[in-house]
Design brief:
Layout lengths: L6 H9 L22 E8 L4 H6 L16 E8 L3 H12 L3 E6 L4 E6 L1 H17 L4 E2 L3 E2 L1
Parallel strand pairs: 1-5, 1-6
Antiparallel strand pairs: 1-2, 2-4, 3-4
Helix pairs in contact: 3-4
């Protein structure tokens, strides 16, 4: 197993020519991220426009033919990634929100609906994860 280095130490070694190279002279770098128990993004975007919804793909697949323009969008990101399933369940049971997108392999969740409903659902998710599941949660932001 390799040694753990800080970003500064890595760049010092890289630019100082002190990193070990393989037999072809190439660097081999492995970056490992150990997911914690956290929500690191909780943001509400009010009154989305059609190009935003189209770019996010909120009009394809099971949502084909739906128009989310003018609705608020709520974005959340979770680790471990599977916890997004629990968050989606809490959100839709708590408020009148739709699941615009959910990715259990990367922990991403997009909620759609009226701004008050999206904010309320995100607050409920943050509260449950903080107080019941003992996750580290970020503050919800709004723009």
């Amino acid at each position: 197993m390799g040694e753990r280095v800080t970003r500064k130490e890595f760049f010092d070694q890289l630019f100082g020519g002190r990193l070990r190279r393989d037999e072809r002279g190439e660097l081999r770098i492995t970056r490992v991220r150990v997911p914690g128990r956290e929500i690191d993004l909780a943001h509400v975007m009010g009154s989305s426009r059609e190009p935003v919804c189209t770019t996010l793909g909120l009009d394809i697949g099971v949502h084909e033919g739906e128009d989310h323009a003018g609705e608020a969008l709520g974005f959340m990101r979770f680790t471990p990634w599977e916890s997004v399933v629990v968050a989606a369940d809490i959100a839709v049971k708590h408020g009148s929100v739709g699941l615009g997108f959910m990715d259990r392999f990367n922990g991403s969740l997009v909620l759609t609906g009226q701004i008050s409903e999206v904010e309320s659902a995100e607050r409920e998710v943050l509260d449950y994860f903080a107080h019941v599941l003992d996750f580290h949660v970020c503050k919800m932001t709004r723009r």
